[in-house]
Known about the structure:
mainly alpha, single chain, about 0% strand, globular
Amino acid sequence: MRTAVWILVRVATTVATLTVLSVLVFWATEVLPGDAVGVVSGPNATDTERETVRLSLGLDRPAPERYLAWMAGILHGDFGVSLVSGREVGAILLARLGTSLAVTIPAAAGIVVLAGSLGILMGLRAGSRLDRGLTAATLGMIAIPEFLIATLLMAVLAVWIPLLPAVAIIPAGQNLWQHPELIVLPALALAIGGCGSTMRMLRASVAQTATTPFAEFARLNGIRGAAYVRLIGVNAAGPAIHSLTVMIAGLLGGAIVVETLFNVPGLGYEITRAVGNRDVPLVQGLSLVLSALVLVILLAGDICSRLLRQATTRQEQQ
């Protein structure tokens, strides 16, 4: 029962945080240089035409009133209309979200597999040459910015050894999922950039767990090999899940750079274009959706970590 109450509190906190973020997103778009009137009316519009456009967009109303109207529309599934393309913002979000997931899901899977296996190996062999070498490698992963990793991958795998396309050119009427060769480079760039900190967190957690009386008791009872590795890995996964979820949430931010570099038409790529075009409804919708995705990922990580911690505590007590 206490866990259910804790989950409800965390969900309520997430909703409250998203509400605050919606205010910040609306305020940030209000202070952007230029305005939507200039985008819609064009540079050669007269003052009368600009005023007409301002009235049609409802920009003559107070900001709090426009914010409440915007939120009311979102609650009914209406994110507004793009000022540049004239398309529904909700339709653009759905299309771009699918493209971003085509890159971030393989990247997250790569982080889980690589960081999980190497982090456990490092923790079980803490202090060894292998551990020191991999620790140095993780520091390099953390230190090198994602745009540089992406540039190096593009230079090596698309220019020097032309195995993969340098940019994502998706044929009309198709989506990125249908072209795995276009996913490899951006997903690999995100995975390498996000792997280091997760490996270090899991390594520290495994090394600490391996020194506990619980682990010593397991060894004395003859648990060896894969069974021992699985036992230590499961008990050490709780703290690492937090690091993993933070890293996966960070992939959405890193995707802005990577998608722009590889010309992947996802959420990150679209938001850079929307900001450049002063497309306020699209910027607001994209920013709010990205914020909501990050909060949901962090919430899922907190819940999984707590449930796993409770399960391992019961196992140790038995």
